[in-house]
Design brief:
462 residues; five-stranded parallel sheet; globular; binds adenosine-5'-triphosphate; Hda_lid; nucleotide-binding; cytoplasm; Chromosome_initiator_DnaA-like
Length: 462
């Protein structure tokens, strides 16, 4: 049954847009299959109705194809939502009231849906047992972050507090903070640890506000031993949440309780964030997680395939890793597609099969990036006019973005230095060379510059 669902959802991923897939199919859980009846659970009534009306036929067809027999598919509400209700009404000890428990109908946090083992301690902590240091592949891009994570997991509250990870989407920030949580939970089974996505924290603040439940809210968060908070950029512009978080932060740090934060950008770049919070975020250790380099992408593919019981040849792993460069989540998605394709067609995984399975993805990756596109993207990013890319003006707020655009033109297109110079208002090739060297040097020395360039590269590669 699990095998069926893995294969079917990978097939649906091929057929749907990424948004449709992650909104409707990803949250579903295949519960059981017996006597030609398959039960699939959706996390809430809204999703249930939509999936029934839009995808029931396709899922049924896939099931019939898989079992080579008629299958009746029943869509039901996720039984864990019902199972949670008694907990929600049971009076919890005063020091363990979770804001989420006050609101039984609250949607589960997106990242928490499926993988949480059922022990009450895990339920409370929301730590995903699958995301460990063991399953985390290390390379140049994340070795510093991993070393800091291990240090903090070994000495929570003592070494770096807060520990702040930043990096682009799908690079392993969430994985790493769960890994810390898992290790501390194993070392100190009594510790009160809580993982929370920043969006959920915002919702909890709103609920506490509506129910005048701030005392419980404060008590809960201020008495934790470790708080792991993911994607804190979601606090941007939400002043009440920031205020509450500020108090929690101060209380926990003063009591030497560990706080670990992730964000898609470094503290100073988070928009709409109170300065006093920004300075506190930066007061422990701030570490970047970079996009994985080629060897690491290969290692990730080999490891993930192995955990699916499949051996990928090095050729295939290199081929995929060379073409998909942006993040680990994308690699995982590609691998799922390849496995599904080869299972459905009963064919071994060769480079030709990979090309077929990843047709859409590869065509997007190979899309030509033009110098004009780079100029426009960089100008938008730095809020200057595109015309300034060709102009002779030289104030620093224009000169630097222009140099960055020249650097990206050299990195991402096949154009020669003189051709690039021409496209930047008829500049000499030595000017372009100077810009390329300058930005490459800054990138080496300055993690913030490096991060900025990654964001631009990811935007340009779509
Ligand atoms: N170094 C790694 N080794 C193994 N798996 C990884 C690694 N980095 C990321 N992953 C996997 O890639 C997927 C995306 O990672 P994760 O959710 O941690 O990214 P993120 O940086 O938190 O992204 P976002 O900002 O979008 O939340 C997860 O399934 C995670 O397990």
């Amino acid at each position: 049954m699990e095998n069926f669902w893995q294969t079917a959802s990978a097939q649906l991923e091929l057929e749907l847009t990424p948004q449709q897939y992650s909104a409707w199919i990803k949250p579903l859980v295949a519960l059981d299959y017996e006597d030609g009846k398959l039960r699939i659970a959706a996390p809430n009534r809204f999703k249930l109705d939509w999936v029934k009306s839009q995808f029931a036929n396709r899922i049924t067809a896939l099931a019939c194809q898989y079992w080579e027999a008629p299958v009746e598919v029943q869509f039901v509400l996720d039984p864990r939502l019902n199972a949670k209700k008694p907990d929600a009404v049971r009076p919890a000890p005063a020091n363990q009231v979770e804001p989420g428990q006050l609101r039984p109908s609250a949607p589960a946090e997106p990242q928490q849906n499926l993988n949480i083992a059922n022990s009450p301690k895990r339920e409370q902590s929301r730590i995903n047992p699958d995301l460990t240091f063991d399953s985390f592949v290390t390379g140049k891009a994340n070795q510093l972050a991993r070393a800091a994570a291990i240090q903090v997991a070994n000495n929570p509250g003592v070494s770096y507090n807060p520990l702040f990870f930043y990096g682009g989407v799908g690079l392993g920030k969430t994985h790493l903070i769960h890994a810390i949580g898992n290790q501390v939970m194993a070392d100190q089974p009594g510790a009160r640890i809580r993982y929370i996505h920043a969006e959920q924290y915002v919702r909890d603040v709103v609920t506490a506000y509506q129910r005048k439940g701030f005392d419980d809210f404060k008590h809960y968060y201020h008495s934790l031993d470790m708080l792991l908070i993911d994607d804190i950029q979601f606090f941007g512009g939400k002043s009440r949440t920031q205020e509450e978080f500020f108090y929690a932060f101060e209380a926990l740090i003063a009591a030497k309780k560990q706080i670990i934060i992730t964000s898609d950008t470094y503290p100073k770049e988070i928009t709409g964030m109170d300065d006093r919070l920004i300075s506190r975020f930066d007061s422990g250790l701030t570490v970047a997680i970079e996009p994985p380099e080629l060897e690491m992408r290969v290692a990730i593919l080999l490891k993930k395939a192995q955990s699916e019981g499949v051996t990928l040849s090095d050729d295939v792993a290199f081929f995929v890793a060379k073409h998909l460069r942006s993040n680990v989540r994308e690699l995982e998605g590609a691998l799922r597609k390849i496995l599904a394709y080869s299972r459905f067609h009963g064919k071994d995984i060769t480079i030709d099969i990979v090309k077929e399975a990843l047709k859409d993805l590869l065509s997007v990756q190979n899309r030509q990036i033009s110098v004009e596109n780079i100029q426009k993207t960089v100008a938008d990013f730095f809020n200057i006019k595109v015309a300034d890319m060709y102009s002779k003006r030289r104030p620093a707020n224009i000169a630097r973005p222009r140099q960055i655009a020249m650097y990206l033109a050299k990195e991402l297109t096949q154009k020669s230095l003189p051709e690039i110079g021409e496209l930047f208002g008829g500049r000499d090739h030595t000017t372009v060379l100077h810009a390329v060297r300058k930005i490459a040097g800054d990138r080496q020395k300055n993690p913030e510059c490096n991060h900025e360039l990654h964001v631009l590269e990811q935007t340009l590669k779509g």
